[in-house]
UniProtKB/TrEMBL annotation:
Keywords annotated in UniProt: Membrane, Transmembrane, Transmembrane helix
Transmembrane parts of this sequence: 58-80, 111-132
Keyword Ligase: no
Protein's recorded name: Interferon induced transmembrane protein 3
InterPro entries hit by this protein: CD225/Dispanin_fam, IFITM_antiviral_protein
Keyword Transmembrane helix: yes
Record-linked PANTHER family: INTERFERON INDUCIBLE TRANSMEMBRANE PROTEIN, INTERFERON-INDUCED TRANSMEMBRANE PROTEIN 3
Single GO BP term: negative regulation of viral genome replication
Record localization: Membrane
Family to which the UniProt record says this protein belongs: Belongs to the CD225/Dispanin family.
GO CC list: plasma membrane
Predominant place of localization: membrane
């Protein structure tokens, strides 16, 4: 009978019958070839602190500055976003988060106010409500 043991060459590859003497010789040869395998393996864990990503909302602020700049909220949000990015580059994470939070709040206010005023203007324009003062002036009211 031929028996294959893990870690030892199989009898089919060695072309010799497997006996107790052969197994002992192969085991001794494996130990002599690779003595470091018997030593306990140690591992080292290195803890690398990761930076917490601070979103500075600069693209959103730029969009609000260009398109929805009602009451200059978009411009102020852009200024806070730049301050947040500067704080992040210096390494002041708490300061960057504070400026980023303010920029986010200003961006939300600018977006909501801009959308409400734009929709209101469109509704008034479509319904003709903006034409009423002009019609009153034409008919001699003023």
């Amino acid at each position: 009978n031929l028996i294959a043991l893990p870690g030892l060459p199989s009898p089919a590859r060695t072309q010799r019958p497997l006996s107790l003497n052969t197994v002992q010789q192969d085991h001794q040869a494996a130990v002599m070839e690779n003595p470091q395998s018997l030593a306990p393996k140690t591992t080292t864990v290195i803890d690398i602190p990761t930076e917490t990503p601070v979103r500075d909302h600069i693209v959103w602020s730029l969009f609000n500055t260009i398109f929805l700049n009602w009451c200059c909220l978009g411009f102020v949000a852009f200024a806070y976003s730049v301050k947040s990015r500067d704080r992040k580059m210096v390494g002041d994470v708490i300061g960057a988060q504070t400026y980023a939070s303010t920029a986010k709040c200003l961006n939300v206010c600018s977006l909501v106010l801009g959308l409400l005023l734009t929709i209101t203007f469109i509704i008034l324009f479509v319904t003709g409500s903006l034409m009423i003062p002009q019609m009153v002036r034409q008919h001699g009211g003023y």
